[in-house]
Input
Amino acid sequence: MENKKNILFSSGSLRMGGLERVLIEVLQNIDKESMNIQLVINDDAGDKNIFRKDVPSEITVHFLIDQEYFELGEKLKYNKKNFFDKMKYNSYLSESRKKSENAFLKYIKDYQEVEVIVDFDGGLSRYIEKVKGVKKILWLHNSPSKLLKKPSKIKRFGERLEKYDIVVAICDDMKNEVIELFPHLKERVTRIYNPFNFERIRKLAEDGSFLSGEEKNLIDQEYCLAVSRLDTVQKDYDTLLKAFSKFKKSSKSDLKLYICGDGPSRDEIEKMIDELKLSKEVVLLGQQKNPYIWMKRCQFFVHSSKYEGLPTVLIEAMILGKTVVSSDCPTGPREILDDGHVGYLFKIGEVEMLSHILLEIENQEFLSEKILKYIDKFSTKYIMVEYQELISRILC
Output
């Protein structure tokens, strides 16, 4: 096809994560017959680039920070034992940001035909205005009001949004929040849900090839499941674990809680589990290459968070016909669960409320047909049409 449009996607990494999974789904399904796609990734994490193999072969991948320099940063990050180590790491961060900026601007200069830049994680917002004559789209994946508490930071965030021609929020709540904070940007803000490949998720849910011998035994037990990064800043594990403890004291079942994921708060969460005497009831599964098989086998799915963007794991669990229990946090869960009509919502930090819900839905099946009909709007076949229309519109 002649006159293919030159589109550049930018993001931070190809490591395991919800944002990265969405990016891959987009790249695999976007119309490459009408577009030349370039992908710029900030960090080359080497073997940790879990999704590198899933990038379509016709898409060129360019890393701004090479593997050696990235690994230096990881070493400094996890070895901050004293003031001087922290100073070294802070110095690295400052140098790394400048290094990324220079590398990106050089890449754009060399790749002069780019017509649209899609900043998929906001990583370019510090310097995107230095790129001239190119249309710019920013994707927002998290609630700005929860990430930015100080008025000065909110103001600075708004100034960064002004650098883009279009700002995409991934749910209606987030879109409305951005417009409320920055009403002068109302005409630039739109909403496009994250796309989900239903067929792929259901296929992976039947694939047990990644399971170890011990995991094959665990997956045959009765359990409810949580899937998230082990990060207590955003994820409310305190509420989840206390509620599960109360549930176990009131229930006669052998139901366990499994948690898929890893992250910086693992030690803190293990300490919570020990203090609540849940070491035999809660299992930390670590990072799972295929979390869907665990979702498929669970009794129900539970998610406790202080804030979100559009939590993909809720939709993935619903695609597999599972009952979902989630904190009513900004933004996404209420919208995904249709105000609680296709799932359960509890107030952030409400241990009693969550414990009561767990008792209520124990051994109870939600109407899968109702769930599946409702979430069809998140399927790739519908969402990618909106992606195509957005890029066509910005180029007009």
Q: What stands out?
A: The chain has a mean pLDDT of 92. The two ends are 19 Å apart (CA to CA). Residues 5-195+379-395 form a domain with the Rossmann fold fold (CATH 3.40.50.2000). The CA atoms of residues 55 and 179 lie 33 Å apart.
